[in-house]
Specification:
The protein has 18 helices and eleven strands. It is of the alpha/beta class.
Length: about 450
C-alpha cells in the first residue's frame, strides 16, 4: 500500500515538474514572441522610477493585460526632482523595489560593482535585445562586462531649436558644421541686430547643468569618444590638452557678448526654461536655442497656436570636424533589477520589446528601440529627435550625469565662471583646474579658491 502511494506521489511530483517546465518554456516564448504566458493574477512586481506615471502607466497596463501580473509603480518624481537617495539607500534599509528605472548610470555602476543587482544575462531574451538595440545601448547597460540594465527611455540632447519660417524669410539655411553655425550666428547678429542665441543657465540648486550640455556636445565632437570616456572615468585630467582645445569652441559662443541674448549676464541669470521661448515670440528676441528633445512640450504649451515642424523645429547640433560626425549626446532611463523573481524577469523582457516601445512613444517620449515605428511619434519634432538618436553613428550618455553626484554638482557650479572666463584660454584653464582638483580629491580635501575679476 505504501509503495502504491509512493508511486502515486512520485507521479504527481513528476507531473507538477513537467507542468512547471512547460510554464517556464511558455514564459520565455512569450518574452520573445509576445504570446501571453499562463500566470496567476495574484502575482505582483514593484517598480520605482522617475518616469511620468501618466506616460508609463499604459505600458505597465499592457504588461498586466498580457501576463496577469500586477505592477505597483512608485513615481519618485511626483514633487520636485527625482530623489536619488530613495534608491541609493534602499539596500541599507531593505526597501529596494523589485525593479528601478532611473536616469543615473552612476547608480547602476555603484550597485553593479557592489553586487546588489541581478545579472540580466541569466534570463533576458538576448534575441529580442540584440534585435531591438544597437550595441552602444547594450554596452551602456553593462558594468565590467555584466549586463545589469536595459534602456527604456531616451532623450536627445544634441538639438538646436529654431523657427523655419524665420529662416525662410531671411534666406538662412540650417548649418551642418560648427563653422557654418558660427557664420550663421555672425550673419544673424549683423543683419538683424538681434542676438542669435537664447541661453539660460540658471536652475536653482542645479544651476550649471544647461551649460554642461554645451560642453559635452562640443567635447564629444571635437575630441572624440575616447577622450570623452576617459574624462568621464577621470583617466585623463580636466586640464587635458583635448579638453582645453574644446574650450576654444566653447569660447566662440560664450566669449561673444553679441551672440547671447542679454550678453553673458543674460545667459547666467536667465532661468533655463524661460530661455526656450524667445526664438518663437513675435517678434523673436533671438533665433536659436540649444536644448534637449523635451523642449517640444514646453514650446507647444507656451505657443499652442503654433505648428510643430512649421513654426518650431529642430536640426542636429553640428559636426565640429570631419572625424567625429553624426554624433548624439543624450540621456535616458535604465531599468535594473534587485529581486530575481519570475515577475521581475517577465517585466524586463517586456520592456525591451518593440510593442512596449511603441506604446511609450505614442505618449511623446523617445525610445532607443531601433525597430519601433517612428511614424507613431505624435509630432515631427520628437520624431526627428528620435530618428537622429537611433541613426547616430556615435552615441554617448551625458558625461556629468555619469560622474559621482558630488563631482557632478561641483562641475555645474563652475559653469558660470567658465562663461565669465570665455574666450580667454588661461582664464578658462583656471576654472578647469579647480574641477580637476575636486575630481582628484573626492573626500573633501581643501579646494583652493581662485579669485578672478571677469569684468561682469
Amino acid at each position: 500500500m505504501k509503495s502504491s502511494r509512493l508511486i502515486v506521489v512520485a507521479g504527481i511530483a513528476l507531473a507538477m515538474l513537467a507542468i512547471l517546465e512547460i510554464g517556464l518554456v511558455k514564459q520565455q516564448a512569450w518574452a520573445e514572441t509576445l504570446a501571453e504566458p499562463e500566470m496567476s493574477p495574484a502575482q505582483t512586481v514593484t517598480i520605482s522610477g522617475c518616469l511620468s506615471s501618466g506616460q508609463f502607466q499604459p505600458v505597465l497596463d499592457e504588461f498586466t493585460s498580457r501576463s496577469g501580473i500586477t505592477v505597483q509603480y512608485e513615481n519618485m518624481q511626483q514633487e520636485g526632482p527625482c530623489d536619488q537617495n530613495r534608491i541609493r539607500n534602499c539596500t541599507d534599509n531593505n526597501s529596494c523595489p523589485d525593479i528601478a528605472i532611473l536616469p543615473w548610470p552612476s547608480i547602476l555602476a555603484e550597485f553593479g560593482e557592489a553586487g546588489a543587482l541581478v545579472d540580466l544575462g541569466t534570463f533576458i531574451s538576448s534575441t529580442v535585445l540584440d534585435a531591438n538595440y544597437a550595441d552602444t545601448w547594450i554596452d551602456l547597460g553593462k558594468v565590467d562586462g555584466t549586463l545589469y540594465g536595459v534602456w527604456f527611455n531616451a532623450g536627445n540632447k544634441s538639438l538646436v531649436w529654431h523657427d523655419p519660417a524665420e529662416f525662410t524669410a531671411h534666406g538662412w539655411t540650417t548649418p551642418t558644421t560648427w563653422a557654418e553655425m558660427m557664420a550663421l550666428s555672425e550673419q544673424i547678429s549683423n543683419t538683424t541686430g538681434t542676438p542669435p542665441w537664447s541661453i539660460g543657465n540658471e536652475s536653482g540648486p542645479a544651476t550649471g547643468w544647461p551649460l554642461t550640455d554645451w560642453f559635452e556636445n562640443i567635447l564629444l565632437r571635437s575630441a572624440g569618444p575616447d577622450v570623452y570616456d576617459d574624462l568621464t572615468t577621470h583617466d585623463i585630467p580636466w586640464t587635458h590638452t583635448e579638453v582645453l582645445s574644446a574650450m576654444t569652441y566653447f569660447g566662440d559662443i560664450f566669449g561673444n557678448e553679441e551672440y547671447q541674448l542679454g550678453g553673458k549676464s543674460g545667459t547666467l541669470n536667465t532661468f533655463f526654461f524661460d530661455a526656450i521661448f524667445p526664438p518663437f515670440e513675435e517678434p523673436p528676441r533671438a533665433y536659436l536655442h540649444h536644448q534637449g528633445s523635451w523642449a517640444h512640450g514646453a514650446i507647444s504649451g507656451r505657443f499652442p497656436a503654433q505648428t510643430a515642424g512649421v513654426d518650431y523645429a529642430v536640426f542636429p547640433f553640428p559636426d565640429i570636424g570631419s572625424v567625429y560626425t553624426n554624433v548624439v549626446m543624450g540621456g535616458g532611463d535604465i531599468a535594473m533589477v534587485f529581486s530575481d523573481t519570475a515577475e521581475a524577469q517577465s517585466l524586463i523582457n517586456f520592456l525591451i520589446t518593440t510593442d512596449a516601445a511603441e506604446i511609450w512613444i505614442q505618449g511623446g517620449s523617445t525610445s532607443p528601440n531601433r525597430n519601433a515605428d517612428t511614424s507613431l511619434y505624435p509630432d515631427p519634432n520628437t520624431r526627428a529627435a528620435a530618428e537622429y538618436l537611433i541613426n547616430a553613428d556615435l552615441f554617448r550618455f551625458d558625461l556629468t550625469d555619469q560622474l559621482p553626484s558630488d563631482l557632478n554638482v561641483y562641475v555645474w557650479s563652475q559653469m558660470d565662471d567658465l562663461v565669465r572666463a570665455a574666450p580667454d584660454p588661461a582664464a578658462m584653464e583656471e576654472v578647469l583646474a579647480r574641477i580637476e582638483f575636486k575630481a582628484s580629491h573626492p573626500y573633501g580635501i581643501y579646494l583652493p579658491f581662485v579669485v578672478r575679476d571677469f569684468g561682469l
